[in-house]
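User: Structure please.
Assistant: Input sequence and predicted structure:
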Amino acid sequence: MSLLVTCKAGVARVLVSLLSVALAGTAALGQLVTPKTVPVHQDHQFDLFPAQRPAMGGVSIAIDDTILDPFVNPARASRLARGTFFANPYSHSITGARGGGLTVPVGALFTSGAWAGTAVAALQQLDRAGSTFGQPISDQTASNSYVEASLAHRLANGLSVGAAAFYAGLGAIDGVDLLYAGSDRIDQDGQLVDLRLGLTKEFSGNRTLDAVLVHNRTSMVHDVHYSLWRWNPWPQPTEFFERTDHNEDRTNIWGVHAKYAYPIGAEGWRIGFMGTANRLSHPKIPNYEIQNIPRDPGNTSAFNAGVGISRVLGGLVAGADVIFEPMFSDTWATTERDTAIIGGGVIRAGGRTVDNNFRFNNARMRMGLSQEIPLKPDSSSAIGVQAGLGAYSIRYRLKQHNYVQREYRTQHEDWVEWSPSLGVKYRSRGIELQYTWYRTCGAIGCSDRQQPGPIWTVAEGIATRSGGIIAAPGAPITMDGGNVSVHRISLSLPIR
């Protein structure tokens, strides 16, 4: 027994040391912070996991969510009081025929003694962007599959540790179709892997500390097909030809995330603070249309810092978060052969032809309200309503050096994405059933008016990955990525 206790203490010390080092200096995260330079929506595709209050606008810093928290920090599964089976099918659609899909996740949260964990599997059908009338089924839809598992262990003195692994086999990612202007078919294939090591510590006075170390890898292949005409001077006939470009898209992320929350007074108030740091490397960035220049590496350093406040008063839960997201990103283009410089000089093979420097000053605000009303006094059955609103302000500055043309320019872009949400809930001793609707409004607001697709000019490199796109536009962005509507049904059954 003493040997077992010693081993547990040793494991705890090692994990605490690793997370302390990460928090002190390197980049990482629990909730991924990624750059976004064009109004294309991708987050909803990966919104697989259940939540107690999914319609509260994403408020999370000072509010615990027993169901969702174990998927953010695997150590949080140790706080489960009982196991739960769940299914939360949902559909999402993007206006203007820009895509969407249907997703069916099923899974369970379990606890047994000092051990606890989660397991999820999901199948997803994504709709291709644009008109698909008369096209083969493979050009109309794509399928994705997801699986996640985690395991947590309670140690002494309120300390718990956990680990999680997530894998996605991807036949498509939302929004990629919009980023290859002029193409008539894009075959996507790849995978996403997310590994997490988590720690949670409960202190006296209902104070909690969470820390998560993450490694995330996205690897995709885009085979892009073009049908083109070459207009020749008379009397030569006009030529029709086809072209297929093979593009790789790879992004690796290391991250750390920490959150600390504690109560204020004795009237149900609680305050929380969080911080995140990410280091993204882009070893392979695709070649997008307009200027088909080889674009390979790039790096991004992304951070966030936020504060949240909440109040629980009987069946009422209310909260708000404010988060600042600074990011710094550099991408560049290289030449495959010696390239002449306008006005004289040569860039040798492998040298940089373009440098793109981004500086982001993004911000998020989230607020939400949840009210549960018992159907009868002292009854375990209740009905509830939820409402929330999120706002995501995206603002960045691009400085671009073109060494071939001897040009330098600066471009500023900013827009706000609004996310209203509503939900209703029924809860009894043996079942919990919820319906949630939420919407993400694009750069031109919440109306459904349409713009004619991706008509901005992409000058240099772009990196796409789950929840993030970084592109260096060559002119002011006029793209309308559309609005996303989500309808979700969540069913939870306790495991006795």
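Residues 1-30, 450-467 have pLDDT under 50 and may be disordered.
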